[in-house]
């Protein structure tokens, strides 16, 4: 489960359901998972209606588990058309159908929240993470292939990905920027978003329909830091350093996220942002990813 963040509005609270209660704090729960039966059984709609689920994201690993975990995709895998396609072609037939169906299920949320929630993410190939031009071409192709207003194309926040992110946003795509760990990386992504909006405004183009999230990873920071602490303690440290190292265990990731959120408030609270907001733009929300593993 991931959550997207906006500025809190306590008046939005709904009932006593813990997940729905997150809405009162400006948090929109997303599901980091997709599988065919989740879409066809009505279970996803139940999560939306009963638990306040507001979005969904996917990646190649998620699809791999869904495809290899049973016979849910046998109709495509065993079809005559699939036999004429390479592995990537078959994958895209599966992924496009699932993402399109998920987008359709989330469409009421997208409409009711005035395009603030209700998005489903599909990731560009990870093999293109260091190729700007190929990433742009892939993102545009996926956007057109899914052909849903509430799809988000996921692009990694690599140095090569940044110009692709800016270009795709300027082209009018919804973009989910993934694999952000550092505050400096987040600032670069936010700058790409703001610059893209400003470019569209300058050309007289609409910005009200463009949505973006910056996926900032949390728990993996603690995993790295805590392992480093263990290594240092095992190697031996001065007596005065041991309590300090122990005090950092399990604390760095949240501190990093809080400082990043503070930067979000600064970036989307000043005059520069107000100029874009006056044209109907919505903030690029922070998505807290990898919050438990």
From TrEMBL:
SUPFAM superfamilies: Aldolase. Its main location: cytoplasm. The keyword Lipid biosynthesis does not apply. One of its GO terms (biological process) is pentose-phosphate shunt. Pathway: Carbohydrate degradation; pentose phosphate pathway; D-glyceraldehyde 3-phosphate and beta-D-fructose 6-phosphate from D-ribose 5-phosphate and D-xylulose 5-phosphate (non-oxidative stage): step 2/3. Its EC number is 2.2.1.2. Keywords: Cytoplasm, Pentose shunt, Schiff base, Transferase. GO terms for cellular component: cytoplasm. It comes from the Bacteria. It is an enzyme of class 2 (transferase). It is found in: Cytoplasm. InterPro entries: Aldolase_TIM, TAL/FSA, Transaldolase_2. It holds the Pfam family TAL_FSA. One of its GO terms (molecular function) is transaldolase activity. HAMAP family: Transaldolase_2. Transaldolase is important for the balance of metabolites in the pentose-phosphate pathway. Belongs to the transaldolase family. Type 2 subfamily. This is Transaldolase.
């Amino acid at each position: 489960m991931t959550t997207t963040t906006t500025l809190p509005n306590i008046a939005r609270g709904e009932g006593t359901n813990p997940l729905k209660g997150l809405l009162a704090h400006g948090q929109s729960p997303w599901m980091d998972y997709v599988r065919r039966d989740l879409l066809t059984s009505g279970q996803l709609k139940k999560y939306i209606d009963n638990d306040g689920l507001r979005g969904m994201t996917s990646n190649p690993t998620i699809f791999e588990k869904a495809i290899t975990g049973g016979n849910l995709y046998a109709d495509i895998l065993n079809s005559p058309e699939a036999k004429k396609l390479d592995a990537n072609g078959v994958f895209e037939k599966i992924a496009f159908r699932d993402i399109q169906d998920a987008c359709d299920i989330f469409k009421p949320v997208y409409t009711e929240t005035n395009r603030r929630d209700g998005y489903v993410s599909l990731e560009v190939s990870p093999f293109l993470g260091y190729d700007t031009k190929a990433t742009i071409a892939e993102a545009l192709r996926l956007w057109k292939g899914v052909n849903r207003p509430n799809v988000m194309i996921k692009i990694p926040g690599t140095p090569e990905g940044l110009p692709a992110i800016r270009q795709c946003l300027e082209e009018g795509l919804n973009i989910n920027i993934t694999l952000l760990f550092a505050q400096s990386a987040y600032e670069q992504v936010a700058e790409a978003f703001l610059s893209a909006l400003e470019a569209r405004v300058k050309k007289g183009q609409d910005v009200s329909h463009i949505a973006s999230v910056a996926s900032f990873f949390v728990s993996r920071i603690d995993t790295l830091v805590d392992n480093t602490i263990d290594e240092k303690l095992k190697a031996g440290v001065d007596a005065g350093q041991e309590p300090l190292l122990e005090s950092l265990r399990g604390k760095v990731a949240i501190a990093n996220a809080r400082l990043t959120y503070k930067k979000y408030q600064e970036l989307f609270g000043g005059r520069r942002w107000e100029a874009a907001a006056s044209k109907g733009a919505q903030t690029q929300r922070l998505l807290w990813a990898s919050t438990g593993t």
